[in-house]
Specification:
- This protein is globular.
- The protein is built from 12 helices and 6 strands.
- Helix 7 crosses helix 10 (about 185-200) and helix 10 (about 185-200) packs antiparallel against helix 12.
- It has 2 domains: about 5-85, Orthogonal Bundle (434 Repressor (Amino-terminal Domain)), CATH 1.10.260; about 110-280, Endonuclease, Chain A, CATH 3.30.870.
- A hairpin with a 7-residue loop joins strand 4 and strand 5.
- The protein has helices at about 10-25, 30-35, 40-45, 55-65, 70-85, 95-110, 125-135, 140-155, 175, 185-200, 250-265, 270-280; strands spanning about 110-115, 165-170, 205-210, 220-225, 235-240, 240-245.
Length: about 280
């Protein structure tokens, strides 16, 4: 795929977000196509991250969908970044725009692979655990409460019909032994994840034991999104300063190979569930 045809991570985020905005506004594809003078197929390609979108056409679609000003401004900035191939993300509003885009990626994905050495992914979080992670001081105002509800709602992807999200996570044993929110909260979190794994064949969680040998993702938090062929796979490395996305085929293939290495070195799924249940009773 040539550089000019590459569907960048920014473009994928823009497309997934525009699709969500159009659906929420109850605007048909043909109406969107009419607004910017294109075919419905082009709207589909935009929403799948295949086609670049001019700033003028983006502004017209955002106006048609009635998008709030802060979200519109943020998406315009990301579109500029997509044209420059430089990531810029701005926040704003009760739900920060970059959080909405991350949520759009989760909802658009058919499968997600995830590795983190010390925390569970948002779709696996019990409410009490999520609350402790988002508000370490214990104080949650209305803005944080709104963001908490948004994060918890993303777990619906695990039970959506007709095709639930396939979620495969490897977490470090440290994630099981953290003290987020206190012992009672951690016990509920571990039971919650173990119950998800036992109840849902589309959810797999493995534990990387503390005594494991070195592996490819030491010190990193990595998420790989698979869109089932509708869009190219992308990978992200998460930091406290934001996410770094990789969309090149070679980079994503390398991330998948490294995840497979990590998965093989972790405890098997059933042993991992047993460990979580055992620790939850302590």
């Amino acid at each position: 795929m040539g550089h000019g045809q590459r569907r960048t991570a920014d473009r994928i985020q823009i497309g997934a977000t525009l699709k969500r905005m159009r659906t929420e506004a109850e605007v048909a594809r043909d109406a969107a196509a009419e607004r910017i003078g294109c075919t419905t197929a082009t709207i589909g390609n935009i929403e799948q991250g295949r086609t670049k979108l001019s700033h003028g056409d983006l502004a017209a679609l955002l106006d048609l969908y009635g998008v709030p000003a802060d979200q519109a401004e943020d998406l315009v900035e990301v579109n500029r970044a997509a044209h420059r191939a430089v990531k810029r993300v701005r926040g704003g509003g009760d739900i920060q725009p970059h959080q909405r885009r991350a949520g759009d990626l989760i909802r658009a994905a058919q499968a997600i692979r995830y590795y983190c050495p010390e925390a569970f992914h948002g779709v696996l979080q019990h409410e009490d655990y999520a609350r402790a992670v988002m508000a370490p001081t214990g104080h949650i105002d209305h803005v944080l409460e709104t963001r908490l509800r948004y994060r918890l709602d993303l777990a619906d992807a695990l039970s959506r019909e007709p095709q639930p999200l396939e979620f495969w996570a490897v977490v470090g044993e440290a994630a099981l032994r953290k003290n987020f929110g206190g012992q009672a909260v951690m016990s509920r979190q571990l039971r919650h994840v173990a119950e998800l794994c036992r109840a849902r064949p589309n959810v797999t969680v493995q534990v990387m034991p503390l005594n494991a040998r070195e592996h490819e993702f030491v010190g990193a938090t990595v998420t790989i999104y698979d869109f089932g062929g509708a869009m190219p796979e992308i990978a992200s490395v998460d930091t406290t300063l934001g996410d770094q996305f990789f969309e090149r085929d070679s980079a994503v293939a390398e991330a998948i190979a490294k995840f497979d290495d990590v998965r093989l070195k972790a405890l098997d799924p059933l042993t991992s569930i047993d460990m979580m249940e055992d620790l939850s009773r302590r």
